[in-house]
Specification:
The complex is a heterotrimer of chains A (about 325), B (about 190) and C (about 600). With about 190 residues, chain B is α/β, with parallel strands linked by helices. Chain B is built from 7 helices and 5 strands, in the order αβαββαβαβααα. Chain B is globular and about 40 Å long. The chains are: A mainly alpha (about 325), B alpha/beta (about 190), C mainly alpha (about 600).
Chain lengths: ~325, ~190, ~600
C-alpha cells in the first residue's frame, strides 16, 4: 500500500470514529427524549448528551484512585473505538477484512475489562458488586448470542463479518438473513442479547443506581465519567452495528458509484430502529434480578437460539 | 474550553463562555434526602414537573454530581455525612438548601441537635424558602442557580476553598474533631 | 554430549540434596540451561539458522541387552521448546521462595531430566521408563504437601496412567516384537485399537482431561508453587505430547479408524475436551481458594488442546499447539504470581486477600498480563490460539463444540476478574506488604516475553511448529509474519495493535487535558458514611459470584467430584477386603497354597 492509500485509510477510519461518537451521543439524547415521552414528560433537548459530556470533561476537580483507576479511561475509549473500526459500517469495510466476528467479540471485552479494572481499583464495594453483576450478565447474554453467531457462520461458511455482509447484500433486502425463518428466531434471541449488551432496562442490573449506587461507576466523576459516557455512546453504535451486520445485511441495499451514501443512510436508520426498539422495551419493563436474567438467557433465549442453530445445521447438511 | 489546564487555579471569570453554558445546562444533582423535603423530589422528577427538560438529572453518587440538594433539616449526625459528601463532590459544585430548616432551623429552631445555619458549615448557593417548598419552588431555584452560574455568582465552592479554615473551625465547634476529606486541595 | 547432559543433571540432583537452598537453586538453574543449548543446536536440523554446538541428534544406550533409543524429532523439539525453558526460570523464582532446602531440588531435577528423556524417547521402553521416573519424582514432590487427598489421588491416577501406558507397551511388543515407536504403524485390527486407546487414556491423566482430572484440584492446590507451575505449565503438556505423537505422528487416528470405520473417535475426544473446558470453567468461577481456581482454570484451558486434537484438521492442530505453548507460559506466570502473593501475605483464600496491586505493582502487572493471555484478549498471543480453534470448529461445522468453547472463553473473564479483584484490587487490606523479591519478579517477567513476542508476530509461532506438523504429514496454514489466513477469515495482529495504539491517542488526550488528583482509598463514597465508622469488611470478594452459585453449581459440582469419591471409597473397601486374606492362621495360608496349586494343575490339564 502506498502512502496516499494509507493516508486515505487513516482519514476514513478517523472520520468513522468521529461519526460513531457523534451518532452514539445523539442517539442517547434521542433515547432520553423518547423515554420522557413514554413517561408523558417533555424530556431534555436531543443534544443534551453532548452538553453532559462537555461538562464532565471540563470539570475542574478529577479524582483518581491511582494508576490502575486511570486504565479505565484509557482502555474504555481506545478499546471501543478499536471494536467500532473492526466492523463493516454501511457497506464500508474499514478494518473488518483484517479480523472477524470472533475478534470483535473479544475486542468488546477490552473496554469492559479496562472499565472493570478501574472500578475495582477504586476499592468501593459497590463497584465490586457492580462489576460482578456485569460479568454475570455477560456470561448470560453471550450464550444465546454465540449460538446465533455460530448459526450464521455455518450457514454462510465464513466467520468474517465483511463476507457475511457481502453475501447478504447480493439481492438487496431479499437476501438479508432475517428474511429466512431460522434466522428470524435467531434474530429474536440476538436482539434480546443486544438488550443485555446495551444494559438497557430489564437488564440494567450492573448499574442499578438505586441498589448499588450506579455500580462500577460509583467512584467515577469528571473526565473519567465523561470518557465512560463516550464509551457507552460508541458501544451503542458498535453493538447495534454488529446486529445490523449479522442479520440486516449491514444496511447495504444499493451497489454502484454513490451507493455508499444510500447505504450509510440505511445503516443509520437501521441502527436507529434497533436502538428505538431497545429503548421502548427499556421504558416498559422493570429491572430483573440477576438470577432471573441468567435464567431468562440460559433457558428461554438459549433454547430459541439452539432451535435456530439446529434448523440451520439441517439446512446446511442437506 | 481548555482555559484552565494546569496547576494554577483560574478565576471563575476567566472561564470560557462555552464552559459556563455547558455547566449550567447540565446540572446533575445528588439529593441528600434527610428531611421531609425529599417528598417533593419525585413530583419534580416525574411527568408533572419534569426537571429533565432543563438538563437536570438525578445521580447516585457525589463523584458524578454537580449540585447537592439538602432537603430539609440536618442533625449533627447527618451534617457530618453532608460534609463528607460535599467534599467528595468535584468542583465546580453547588449547594441548594431546601426550606426554612436550613436557613434558621425552621420549626426545630429550639432543638438541641439540629443545625440552624447551614451556611456556617458548607457554602450554600441558593436557598428555597417555605416549609416545605412546592415543586415549582424547586424548579425556580434551579433556574435561579443557572442564572447565578451564568452571571458568575455561584461561587460557593471557591468560597469553601478560600475560607476552608473558617469552615473547618465552625465544623469542629459542632463535632469537636476535624473531618478528613478533600482537604489537600484547600 | 547428550549422555553428558543427562549425567550432569543426575549429578546435580544428587549434589543439590546436600547443599543449602540458595546454592541448590543456582546449581539447578544453571544445569537446566544445558538442554536449552541442545535445543538451539537442534534447531539447525529443522530449517532455522542458529549456533551449532555439535550435539548429536541420536543416541543409543545399551544396558544388559536392552537398548534405549534416544533422539530428537521435530515434534519433541517443539514441545521441548515450551516445557524446558520454564525450568530454569522456576529455579530462579525458587531462589527466594523456600525457607530451607528440604528435598525440593533433587526431585525437581529428576522430574526435569526425565521430562527431557520422555521428549527424546524413540522407543516405548525408554518412554515408559522416563514416564515412570517423572511420575515418581513428581509424586515425591506432591508428597511434600503432606495432604492426604492430594497424595492419594495423585498416586492412584499416576499408577492408573502408568498401567495404561504399560498395557499399550505390552500389546505393541506382543504384536510387533519391537518397541520402536516407528513400528507402531504396522499393527492393525483390534490390538492396534486397544493399544492406541489405552495409551491415549494413559496420557490424558497427565493432561487432566475431564473424566481423569480429579487429582488436579487437590494436587495443584496443596503442593509448592514452583512445582505446581512446572506441573501445570510443563508436565501437563507431556500428556498432550504423547497424544499428538500417537495420534498424528504415528498415525494412531488411522489405526482407530481402520478398526471402527463408523465411529468418530476424534469427535469424541473433541466433545470430551469441550466439556472439560466448559465444566472446569464453571467450577473455577465458584472457587474461593486461589490455587484451586487456577487448577480448574488449567483443566479448562488444557481442554482446548484436546478439542484441537479432536477436531484434527491442520487448523485445529495448529491452534492446539499454539494454545499449549501459551498455556505453558501464562499458567506458569499465574501460579508463580499466586506463590508470590502467598509468600508475602501467607493467605490463599481470595476473600482474605485484597488491595495488593498498589503494594506489589510488578507482581500485579505480570498477573494482569498472564490473565489477558488466559482470557484471550487480543493484545496477547492467547487470542491467536483460541481464534484458530474457533475457526477450526466452525470450518468443520461442529455445532455442539463451538458454543461450549466460546462460552468457556467468556467464563474465563469471570474467574480472571475474580483473581484481579479479589487479590489485587479492592480494599487495601495489607498496607505494609512489600513487593515480591527481585528473583521472583525477574522470573515472572521473563516468562511473559513469549506471550508478547507471539502477539506481535503470530506467524513466527506457526513457523516454529511447521517442522513438527510437516513431519506428521499435516500441512501448515497460510500465514505471514503478522497475519494468519484461513478459508473462513483472516486475523491480522498488527492491524489490531496499531489501531489500538492509535485509538489510545484520543483517550490519552482526554486523560491529559484535565489534571487529576489521586486520593486515598479511605476517601470513598459509602453513602456519606465515613470510612472509620464502617464495618471493617468492605471487600466484596467474599462469595463473589453468589447469584451464579445458586443457579449453576448444583448442576456441576456433584458430577465433578462424585465419581472420584466413589472410586476413592471403592478402593478403600477393596483394599480392606484383600487385607482380610491375611488372617494370621497357618491353616488358611496352607489352603491358599493348595488352591493355587490346584488351579495351576487344572490349567495345565486344560491346556
Amino acid at each position: 500500500m502506498d502512502v496516499m492509500g494509507i493516508a486515505i485509510k487513516v482519514a476514513l477510519l478517523t472520520a468513522y470514529a468521529v461519526i460513531g461518537t457523534c451518532v452514539g451521543l445523539l442517539f442517547m439524547g434521542i433515547g432520553r427524549k423518547i423515554i420522557a415521552r413514554v413517561h408523558n414528560r417533555v424530556g431534555p433537548p436531543f443534544y443534551q448528551n453532548f452538553i453532559d459530556v462537555a461538562k464532565l470533561l471540563s470539570k475542574k476537580t478529577n479524582i483518581s484512585h491511582g494508576w490502575i483507576f486511570d486504565l479505565a479511561l484509557l482502555f474504555s475509549i481506545s478499546g471501543i473505538l478499536l471494536t467500532l473500526l473492526f466492523l463493516p459500517i454501511g457497506g464500508v469495510q474499514l478494518l473488518s477484512m483484517e479480523g472477524d466476528a470472533f475478534l470483535v467479540l473479544y475486542l468488546l471485552a477490552i473496554p469492559a475489562l479496562g472499565f472493570a479494572l478501574g472500578a475495582g481499583a477504586s476499592g468501593n464495594p459497590n463497584a465490586g458488586v457492580g462489576v460482578m453483576r456485569a460479568l454475570v450478565m455477560m456470561l448470560s447474554y453471550e450464550l444465546p448470542f454465540i449460538i446465533t453467531l455460530i448459526a450464521l457462520m455455518i450457514y454462510y461458511d465464513t466467520t468474517s463479518l465483511a463476507t457475511i455482509v457481502r453475501m447478504q447484500s447480493i439481492n438487496g433486502v431479499k437476501s438479508w438473513a432475517i428474511t429466512m425463518p431460522p434466522f428470524m428466531l435467531a434474530a429474536f434471541a440476538a436482539d434480546m442479547a443486544l438488550q443485555g449488551m446495551l444494559m438497557e432496562q430489564p437488564f440494567d442490573i450492573p448499574v442499578a443506581p438505586h441498589e448499588i449506587a450506579s455500580g462500577p461507576m460509583v467512584e467515577f466523576g469528571g473526565k473519567y465519567l465523561g470518557s465512560l459516557m463516550l464509551y457507552k455512546a460508541i458501544a451503542l453504535v458498535a453493538e447495534t452495528t454488529l446486529f445490523v451486520d449479522l442479520f440486516l445485511g449491514g444496511g447495504v441495499v444499493a451497489h454502484g458509484n454513490f451507493a455508499f451514501v444510500i447505504n450509510f443512510i440505511v445503516w443509520l436508520a437501521l441502527i436507529f430502529l434497533l436502538f428505538i426498539l431497545s429503548i421502548l422495551i427499556a421504558a416498559s419493563f422493570p429491572r430483573f434480578r440477576i438470577e432471573q436474567a441468567f435464567g431468562f438467557y440460559w433457558k428461554y433465549e438459549a433454547i430459541i437460539a439452539a432451535i435456530s442453530l439446529i434448523w440451520v445445521y439441517i439446512l446446511v447438511i442437506k | 474550553m481548555g482555559l484552565y489546564i494546569g496547576d494554577k487555579m483560574m478565576k471563575y471569570e476567566e472561564w470560557s463562555k462555552l464552559a459556563i453554558k455547558v455547566s449550567k445546562a447540565s446540572l446533575w444533582m445528588l439529593h441528600f434526602c434527610t428531611g421531609c423535603g425529599a417528598i417533593e423530589m419525585p413530583p419534580v422528577m416525574t411527568s408533572r414537573y419534569d426537571m429533565e427538560r432543563f438538563g437536570i438529572a438525578p445521580m447516585a453518587t457525589p463523584r458524578q454530581a454537580d449540585v447537592l440538594l439538602i432537603t430539609g433539616y440536618l442533625t449533627v449526625k447527618t451534617l457530618r455525612r453532608v460534609i463528607q459528601v460535599y467534599e467528595q463532590m468535584q468542583s465546580p459544585k453547588y449547594v441548594i438548601a431546601f426550606g426554612s430548616c436550613t436557613i434558621n432551623g425552621g420549626m426545630y429552631w429550639d432543638s438541641y441537635n439540629t443545625i440552624k445555619h447551614l451556611e456556617k458549615y458548607i457554602p450554600v448557593d441558593v436557598y428555597i424558602t417555605g416549609c416545605m417548598p412546592r415543586p415549582e419552588g424547586i424548579i425556580n431555584a434551579f433556574i435561579k442557580l443557572m442564572e447565578l452560574i451564568d452571571e458568575g455568582k455561584a461561587r460557593g465552592w471557591e468560597k469553601y476553598q478560600k475560607y476552608y479554615d473558617k469552615y473547618k473551625e465552625n465544623q469542629r465547634r459542632v463535632f469537636n474533631f476535624e473531618i478528613e476529606g478533600e482537604n489537600e486541595e484547600y | 554430549m547428550l549422555d553428558i547432559i543427562f549425567a550432569e543433571l543426575i549429578i546435580a540432583a544428587i549434589i543439590t540434596f546436600f547443599v543449602g537452598k540458595k546454592i541448590a537453586s543456582i546449581i539447578a538453574g544453571f544445569i537446566s540451561i544445558l538442554p536449552l543449548f541442545a535445543l538451539i543446536d537442534w534447531a539447525n536440523n529443522f530449517g532455522f539458522k542458529t549456533i551449532s554446538f555439535g550435539i548429536e541428534r541420536q543416541m543409543n544406550i545399551s544396558v544388559a541387552g536392552i537398548t534405549l533409543h534416544l533422539g530428537i524429532t521435530p515434534l519433541s523439539w517443539f514441545f521441548a521448546l515450551m516445557i524446558l525453558p520454564l525450568f530454569p526460570l522456576i529455579m530462579l523464582y525458587s531462589y527466594s521462595f523456600f525457607k530451607e532446602n528440604d528435598g525440593f531440588y533433587p526431585f525437581m531435577l529428576f522430574a526435569f531430566a526425565s521430562t527431557f528423556g520422555i521428549l527424546l524417547s524413540k522407543d516405548m521402553l525408554s518412554l515408559f521408563l522416563f514416564w515412570e521416573i517423572m511420575s515418581w519424582s513428581s509424586f515425591l514432590l506432591v508428597y511434600r504437601s503432606r495432604d492426604k487427598e492430594a497424595i492419594i489421588s495423585y498416586l492412584i491416577f499416576s499408577v492408573f496412567s502408568a498401567f495404561a501406558i504399560l498395557f499399550g507397551l505390552m500389546i505393541l511388543w506382543h504384536e510387533n516384537f519391537s518397541l520402536l515407536l516407528s513400528d507402531i504403524g504396522r499393527i492393525n485390527g483390534i490390538y492396534g485399537f486397544i493399544a492406541i486407546a489405552s495409551l491415549i487414556i494413559g496420557f490424558s491423566v497427565k493432561s487432566v482431561l475431564m473424566p481423569l482430572h480429579a487429582w488436579a484440584p487437590f494436587v495443584y492446590s496443596k503442593s509448592d508453587e514452583p512445582f505446581v507451575a512446572f506441573l501445570s505449565g510443563g508436565l501437563s503438556k507431556l500428556g498432550y505430547y504423547g497424544m499428538f505423537l500417537f495420534l498424528f505422528t504415528l498415525n494412531g487416528v488411522k489405526i482407530l479408524q481402520n478398526y471402527t470405520p463408523n465411529v468418530a473417535w476424534n469427535y469424541l475426544l473433541a466433545v470430551v475436551g469441550s466439556l472439560s473446558a466448559f465444566v472446569a470453567t464453571m467450577l473455577a468461577i465458584m472457587q474461593d481458594d486461589l490455587r484451586k481456581l487456577l487448577a480448574y482454570s488449567s483443566i479448562g484451558q488444557l481442554g482446548y488442546i484436546a478439542i484441537g486434537f479432536g477436531i484434527g484438521t491442520p487448523l485445529a492442530i495448529t491452534g492446539a499447539l499454539f494454545q499449549a505453548f501459551n498455556h505453558a507460559f501464562f499458567k506458569a506466570v499465574l501460579f508463580l504470581a499466586a506463590g508470590a502473593v502467598a509468600y508475602r501475605t501467607g493467605k490463599w483464600k481470595i476473600s482474605e486477600l485484597g488491595g495488593l496491586a498498589y503494594r506489589m505493582p510488578l507482581t500485579f502487572l505480570a498477573a494482569l498480563f498472564a490473565i489477558f493471555a488466559l482470557a484471550a484478549i487480543p493484545i496477547t498471543s492467547g487470542f491467536a490460539a483460541k481464534w484458530l480453534l474457533y475457526e477450526a470448529a466452525i470450518q468443520q461445522k461442529y455445532v455442539f463444540i463451538a458454543p461450549l468453547m466460546l462460552i468457556a472463553g467468556v467464563g474465563a473473564f469471570l474467574y480472571s476478574f475474580r483473581i484481579l479483584y479479589g487479590v489485587f484490587l479492592g480494599e487495601n487490606r495489607y498496607p505494609d506488604v512489600k513487593e515480591a523479591p527481585k528473583s521472583m519478579i525477574a522470573a515472572m517477567f521473563i516468562l511473559m516475553l513469549p506471550l508478547i513476542i507471539f502477539v506481535v508476530f503470530p506467524g513466527y509461532m506457526l513457523d516454529l511448529m511447521k517442522p513438527a506438523l510437516s513431519n506428521s504429514g499435516i500441512e501448515s496454514i497460510a500465514h505471514t509474519k503478522f497475519a494468519i489466513e484461513t478459508s473462513l477469515a483472516k486475523y491480522n495482529s498488527m492491524a489490531v495493535l496499531i489501531t489500538l495504539i492509535a485509538a489510545m491517542v484520543p483517550a490519552f488526550i482526554i486523560y491529559k487535558a484535565r489534571k487529576h488528583r489521586i486520593t486515598s482509598f479511605e476517601d470513598n463514597y459509602l453513602a456519606g458514611e465515613p470510612y472509620e465508622f464502617h464495618n471493617p469488611s468492605m471487600h466484596a470478594a467474599h462469595n463473589f459470584y453468589k447469584p451464579l452459585k445458586g443457579v449453576v453449581l448444583p448442576y456441576f459440582e456433584p458430577g465433578a467430584t462424585y465419581y472420584f469419591e466413589k472410586i476413592y471409597k471403592g478402593i478403600g473397601i477393596l483394599s480392606n477386603g484383600i487385607r482380610r486374606i491375611y488372617t494370621g492362621f497357618v491353616q488358611d495360608y496352607a489352603i491358599y497354597v493348595v488352591i493355587f496349586l490346584l488351579a495351576v494343575m487344572g490349567w495345565l490339564i486344560w491346556m
